[in-house]
Design a protein that fits this description.
With about 45 residues, the protein is an all-alpha fold.
Length: about 45
């Protein structure tokens, strides 16, 4: 199953929003995990 460019973009946006929420709540562990997920999503987008 392939993932469309729009799906990957939507996932990236969702991760960024969740990262902003975690940052606002000073939840550093969740923010770190989301940052790793964002890096992985951005690497996928660049391929």
């Amino acid at each position: 199953m392939t993932t469309s460019q729009q799906d990957r973009r939507s996932l990236r946006i969702a991760i960024v929003r969740a990262l902003q929420l975690a940052d606002a709540q000073d939840d550093h562990l969740v923010a770190a995990l989301l940052a790793q997920a964002l890096d992985a999503a951005e690497n996928e987008l660049s391929e």
